[in-house]
Amino acid sequence: MTLAAVQSFQLVPFLDTIISLATAFVLGTLIGAERQFRQRTAGLRTNVLVAVGAAAFVDIGMRLNGNASAAHVLAYVVSGVGFLGAGVIMREGLNIRGLNTAATLWGSAAVGATAGADFVAEAVLIALFVLAANTALRPLVNLINRQPLDETTTEATYELHVSASSEDIGRIREVVEGHLEAHNYAVRETSTEDLSDETTELTVVLAASTAKPGELEGVIAAVGRTPGVRHATWSMRTSD
Predict the structure, then answer these.
(1) Where is the MgtC/SapB/SrpB/YhiD N-terminal domain (predicted)?
(2) The pTM is what?
């Protein structure tokens, strides 16, 4: 086994591997340092390991069977990084955290895979774009987030909540749907919940749309005047 390892050693391909892995290491360090500075889940070491690992797999594929083998290895690298990225995504109530971190891992893997395929200049270019997305775009994101929410233009999910007598809830459901159809609002789902022995709450979820709050206020006002209705309101949340 030792002799086979010695016989298979070739200086020029070995130097090429060093260049590929070193490039992935340096670029992964640049990407990871920014993540570590902001105390993200996947920091410096994670991004470096992803970049170097991707570079190593692609480089081995090229050494074994040229570009065709590297292309197959690259496909598996993409799938593997997808599972790794899914591990850093967490859901907290209605909020989802870690999407940007997962996307950065994709970027690090792309940088490493490109370096492993001996496209050093392209790897540097990809790394610059990843860094720009995480740094240069941050002021723009903050500026957009500080803007007041315009409910008339924001794509959102709207919910109508109607409390009524349990024996009248079927009839009231038809009334609500009739008012919504008159305003061309599509209903995604409806559900009911018994609040007491005599009161049931109807929840109607509209398909994500750019509804007009004024029209929904009119629908709620009309529903509220329906005999048997005890309370009617609507709420809005931005789509996930």
Answers:
(1) 21-142
(2) 0.61
